[in-house]
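User: Before I run my own analysis I want an independent prediction to cross-check against. Here's the chain; please return only the structure tokens and, at the end, one sentence I can use as a sanity check.
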Amino acid sequence: MTAKDLNPILSLRQIRKVYGSQEVLHGIDFDVGAGEVVALLGENGAGKSTLSRIISGAVQPTSGEMKWLGATYAPASPRAAMDVGVGMIHQELKLLPQLSIAENVFVGRYLMKGGRIDRHAMEERAHAGLQRLGLDVSPRRLVEGLSTAKQQLIEIAKAMTLNARLLILDEPTAALGGDETQLLFRQIERLKADGVGIIYISHRLDEIRQIADRIVVMRDGAKVQEFDSGDVPVRTIVEAMVGRSLERMFPAIPEPKDDVTLDVRNLSSPAKTFNNINFSVRRGEVFGIAGLVGAGRTELVRAITGADPIASGDVVLNGNVIKLRSPRDAIRRGIVLVPEDRKLQGLVLEHSIQENIGYANLEEVSRRGWVTSRRLSQFADAYIRKFGVKGRGGQNAGELSGGNQQKVVLAKWLARKPKVVVLDEPTRGIDVGARSSIYDTIMDLAREGVAVIVVSSDLEEVLGVSNRIMVMAQGKQAGILDRKDANDVSVMELATI
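Assistant: Structure tokens:
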């Protein structure tokens, strides 16, 4: 069933968008039918976000026509779009940390009773939405301190309370594990049955076959291909996205050396998010860490890199026990973390690419304590070229695509030539082309003798890049698998112990 077989609830014709002298959308035609899931795919910078922001009222098109339920549609704001039944879940989390979960779910549209906010009704409806998504947490709890995965589920629950006729889901599973993803898919099926149209944006192409009725592929601001089914081989989709034949996704993995760079012994956290963890990483080894959301993976690597406290156990670097009281201690010893939330923890989005690279390398860009624009420019621009960042040095980091932002985070830390690099969800929300570049960077580090730790919720990714994989379950170490023994089944068996 496609929008062509129905009267589309949303219809776009010849939508164009121009910023200055640059046209970023080139005459897009796009339809969504009631009860239809349309996958909108493309590399970062293809125009997906701009198109979805136009549909949701956040951006105005330069030209073209939109119709909603057969009538002219030109929302002047997201609120105007929401009022007619169009809602959007953004990839970037937009929750307010100092408000409760229920307040976040209903922010801007609080339920009222007798002239007062009806908190009881808000909490009941928010809790029901969260339970449908498998999140058992009090709606009165503040959002502050919740994991990225839980915040993502709250965003989804928020959208589902809109009673929308059309939902735009931008990377809704980027922070979710397998169980949470399947719960979301079941909710999508229920929404479809109720006649809700869904635009589904994702870089996890294996999901598309499960969820999509139709696929629209964009490249460089244009719609380049449309498939009348979601059952399309991943390779076919990828080649449409990148405009070329895709020979391989994961590069060859080099063999590590025999000597151990990092040794983690009996490590436990004060909050018991992980307990009694033991593993070692050899020089030139890529060590994967897998597990379901909430298994304690992120908390573990934050402790190893000095960001979180350690209750007991040791971190040993090149045979010496080290005490890490802060990330600065780890950085000085040659251990760096590329965090899972690049926007919040990895970059200063309002500052330039050059400045972001310089912040982690002040000794290289300053002279007698003073940073000079010439030294900063020369140093940063060399790494911008090395990592293939598509952006000018003076451009704000917040203006870049997700893939290019991640390259900037990598550039600023790898410029320090670290001994250990920890990558937490290194390709979350990143397109296929940028992923391939990041995988190449990981292998380059391994060949140079750097010990690399990769934490990923993408099982294919952690299998594809790792020499060995440690699986965590409920804060415990479930097992370590050699590459030859690791596959989808063996990892999931350990992850669900």
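Sanity check: The two ends are 40 Å apart (CA to CA).
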